[in-house]
Known about the structure:
The chain is an alpha/beta fold. The protein has helices spanning 36-47, 60-70, 82-94, 110-116, 135-145, 165-173, 227-236, 244-254, 257-284, 306-315, 334-350; strands spanning 23-24, 77-80, 100-105, 121-126, 149-153, 178-182, 203-208, 221-225, 289-291, 298-303, 318-319, 321-323, 326-330.
Amino acid sequence: MFKLNSKIAHLTPYTPQTQDYAIRLDANESFCALSDTLKNDILEQISQLSFRRYPDPNANALCKAFAGYYQIDPSLVTAGNGSDELIGVIMNAFLEKDDTVLTFDADFSMYQFYANFTQSKVIVESKESDFHLDIDVAIETIAKNKSRMVIFSNPCNPTSVGEKREDILKLIQNTEALVVLDEAYMDFWQETLLHEVENYDNLIILRTASKALGLAGIRLGFAVTNKKLTNILKAVKSPYNLNVISQTVGTCLYQQKDEINNAIQKIIISRNELYEGLLKLAEKFPKKVEPLASNTNFVYTKFENSTDLFEYLKAQSIIVRCFGTYLRITAGTKAENHTILAAISSFYEKVG
Ligand SMILES: *Cc1c(COP(=O)(O)O)cnc(C)c1O
């Protein structure tokens, strides 16, 4: 009889059922749609594509547009089918069996998921009570375990807490491990290290078009690192990882600086409204609602009876993400923010 090996035997498919909800604030997607002009321009370009030809394996036009928007050197950019794919590629390439890799709790759960396939040993370090990283402790842990890699998001998903540039640089400068810095939400904050990658031999930065740029369905992620590591990433990824349609959509959007920046501003305004609404609820229901300040497009909030609140919202067709005593709520449209804030208020008036 064929037997599954132990690294996969316990796995089940990832099957979120969030499509069933009227208000979806669970996946940190953007609520901004592309302008009609840009959408028509993209559709026109797609109609010119030759579908029978393989795509450009290095997605050169896309990497150039991405690099243009962020003002970096395009030869330092590798494109992937979402940054999720790149996390898998990076772990498979840079980790060997029994290597140790350092991650943190709370942080993005996919790091442990992909590390699992490499048969490396994952060390999960708890964060301080304010959800900040303790950089000195991280440096020590890496040294003690001879970790080959450390991976984390900045600002962090799910907490939205951010670390300053100089603190991350201290980590990079004081370790021999590869630092994989996931800047999925850095479009909402200003502490990027994109312009530093050439100064270090051990830094890979991940970016995505899924959050600020509103292209989660198109699947576009990017790794930015020095030339040596870029060559390796391009050598180990699957050659045609990014289809022509995604490449075309991304190339068009990254050339639209104003459209991107306007969308980011709108999202930040919505995020502030959501946060301020939660602060008002915190005043109204002391100790029951405790939102954390946000550097991203979502707000992480400690709620009394969080799981009951989560179910209460679901019953009203509102879906968010539940992390124990915290809920992570993505900033939505004005109307969506208003609806969820009213629903939370009615929960504590009636139930909680
Ligand atoms: C959403 C998210 C990603 C995944 O982005 P994709 O490009 O859609 O795969 C990666 N890292 C973090 C921290 C995220 O929150």
